[in-house]
Write a structure and sequence with these properties.
Blueprint (H helix, E strand, L loop, with lengths): L19 E3 L5 E3 L57 E6 L10 E11 L15 E8 L7 H16 L5 E7 L3 E3 L4 E2 L2 H12 L9 H13 L7 E8 L36 E6 L5 H11 L3 E4 L5 H12 L2 E12 L5 E6 L5 E4 L4 E10 L3 E10 L8 E13 L5 E5 L3 E4 L11 H24 L3 H16 L4 H18 L1 H6 L2 H14 L20 H23 L9 H15 L1
Parallel strand pairs: 5-6, 5-9, 9-10, 10-11
Antiparallel strand pairs: 1-2, 3-4, 4-16, 6-7, 6-8, 12-15, 12-17, 13-16, 14-15, 17-18, 17-19
Helix pairs in contact: 1-2, 1-5, 4-10, 5-11, 6-7, 6-8, 6-10, 7-8
């Protein structure tokens, strides 16, 4: 009787045509599954002879389809780009007045930036075209309904890309493969992409590193570039071909990332928007990948809404209005100093002993907003001074649709200087942002506590902050308090945190609040995490996805002999009827 030998990593066949490696511990693997590993993934024995095949050089994919010549913009001014004008900058001071002979250390000033809006008639407005690489997990755990849902979601994405957008598809399991070159979504490009999606089949292990490496080769090898580029990564499992889990010390998730995708701060980069599919994915790995590249991390707990999650992300990527945005502030009156800037994930720099400061905002979707809290030291003034101009605010960015550079001046931050300042409530806008920042910091603190195993402490941090938010009576704070309450329940139970999506929900919330950008978090049926950051374009694309799913479900049920699944209320009604008949 002949026994079939399978790889201990991916469990695939190791018959003819496969390069294999048998370690000194007697375990046998595909060579590709243990390439450059130093220990056995089964028994953790350290190997003296390390398997490895290193290519002589990295070949890039330089066969991207050429761009069509962009339409000439003539003498159009950047102020009309995207049909919605320019960036709008506003300021809000913590209090409207400070007494003449009073000083204030850490006086809060809110800088509010809002990107240009979408045109009322989108067909008349130029849009920045997109280069998109989709990196899709097709490992064995994707078998069944998951792969079907993924194909449906990809069909929606392909349908919503325009003829000037380009798409490349990469699939990965034990190994990775580029399925389509970076091609324009013309009729031919769509057909090629749709065929590639239909060919997807689930099997093998999970090699996130190789999937991202293929994507990096597509991005780096481009001969021509669209204005906007992004990578979307979807995975439902843990990388079992690169990472070592359970070993002493922290797992080095950065090992999954090609260096060319890591955000360096020297000009524009390509973000990786990571989607954890289901409860078994490695949320720490996906969050690390997103953070290192400037992307977002979303947790798709309800697998049926994968299309909606993609749609929301695509809605943003297809509406990029500003790139390389930098907000600058300058202290006007002598003695005014910027002490610190609360800017979340966005790098800030305080220069000239606090007299100037900058925040590197980067890319903004149309209508997207960013709020930054500056803590300023304010000196006393002479008796003949009635007003102190604290800060001048400006923003420089590149219009994504036209490529033109834009400089915008915002409102000055000004306070009155009466002899005596009346006691008034602080600015609602400033207080709301202060509470939001503190909540984001507490989410990070709760994550750190949970990772130390202090789950009760993590739950207490979030519950305490939620109570403080709820006590404000503000509707937006109440919404954030509800989110913290749900997170508190998930982190308080070690089982829920580690195996039922608790960590993933927390990390997705961190990604959203630190970037002020919408992500999918937890159960879609309870709403989208960070929904307060959603833009009109994202909401519109999400609505189209919901309608498309409903239409598809109706068509499936109308052609099937099996009736659609009854609702919860209908099930309950039928049980009542059966109970009455039995009586």
């Amino acid at each position: 009787m002949k026994f079939k030998i399978s790889c201990a990593v991916c469990h695939g066949d190791m018959g003819r045509g496969h390069a294999t490696f048998t370690a000194e511990c007697s375990h046998t693997f595909h060579l590709r599954c243990v390439n450059h590993r130093t220990a056995c993934p089964v028994c953790h024995t350290s190997w003296r002879d390390v398997p490895g095949v290193t290519p002589t050089h990295e070949l890039l994919f330089d066969d991207d389809e050429p761009l069509e010549m962009p339409p000439p913009h003539g003498n159009n001014q950047a102020t009309t780009a995207a049909g919605g004008g320019v960036m709008v900058l506003k300021t809000h001071c913590q209090y409207p007045a400070i007494a003449k002979d009073a000083t204030r250390d850490g006086f809060a000033v809110l800088v509010h930036a809002k990107a240009p809006a979408l045109a009322l008639e989108a067909a008349k407005a130029p849009r920045a075209p997109l280069d998109l690489v989709m990196v899709l997990d097709v490992s064995g755990s994707m078998m069944g309904p998951k792969i079907t849902l993924l194909k449906q979601a990809m069909g929606f994405v392909i349908d919503k890309l325009g003829p000037d957008d380009r798409l490349s598809l990469v699939s990965f399991s034990t190994t990775a493969r580029r399925l389509t070159r970076l091609a324009r979504m013309s009729n031919a490009g769509r057909a090629s992409s749709e065929r590639a999606v239909e060919s997807l089949a689930a099997n093998g292990g999970t090699n996130i590193k190789e999937g991202l490496r293929e994507a990096a080769k597509v991005i780096a090898g481009r001969r021509s570039k669209n204005a906007v580029s992004a990578v979307i990564l979807l995975s439902d499992g843990q990388d079992n071909c690169t990472l070592r889990y359970g070993a002493a010390g922290a797992t080095d998730y950065n090992a999954l990332l090609p260096s060319s995708l890591v955000r360096s701060g020297d000009g524009p980069s390509t973000p990786v928007h990571a989607f954890g599919f289901g409860k078994d994915h490695d949320s720490a790995a996906m969050h690390t990948i997103a953070e290192a590249t400037g992307g977002t991390f979303s947790f798709i707990e309800n697998e049926a809404v994968i299309q909606d999650s993609f749609a929301q992300c695509i809605g943003g990527l297809l509406s990029v209005a500003a790139q390389e945005a930098r907000v600058s502030v300058e202290c006007v009156c002598p003695g005014v100093r910027v002490r610190s800037v609360k800017s979340g994930r966005y790098k800030n720099h305080v220069h000239a002993e606090g007299r100037t400061a900058t925040v590197d905002v980067g890319e903004l979707y149309a209508d997207e907003e960013r709020r930054f809290l500056l803590l300023v030291d304010v000196p006393r003034v002479a008796q003949d001074v009635d007003v102190t101009t604290l800060l001048k605010v400006s923003c420089a960015y590149r219009d994504a649709a036209t490529g033109q550079s834009v400089d915008v001046a915002g409102e000055d931050a000004v306070v009155k200087r009466p002899v005596e300042a009346a006691e008034v409530e602080p600015s609602v806008e400033v207080e709301r942002e202060r509470l939001r920042v503190e909540a984001a910091e507490d989410i990070a603190a709760a994550r750190a506590a949970a990772e130390r195993g202090e789950h009760a402490e993590a739950s207490h941090i979030l519950r305490h902050r939620g109570m403080a938010l709820g006590a404000t009576g503000d509707a937006m704070c109440a919404e954030l308090a509800m989110e913290l309450g749900e997170l508190s329940e998930r982190v308080g139970d070690p089982t829920r945190y580690h195996t039922s999506g608790g960590r993933a929900s927390l990390l997705s919330g961190m990604s959203s609040h630190w970037q002020q950008r919408t992500t999918t978090s937890g159960n879609y049926g309870k709403g989208l995490g960070g929904g307060g950051y959603s833009t009109p374009a994202m909401r519109k694309m999400l609505g189209l996805s919901v309608k498309a799913r409903q239409k598809q479900q109706h068509q499936q049920f109308s052609t099937s002999t099996t009736p659609p699944p009854p609702s919860l209320a209908m099930n309950l009604l039928r049980k009542c009827h059966r109970f009455l008949r039995l009586k």
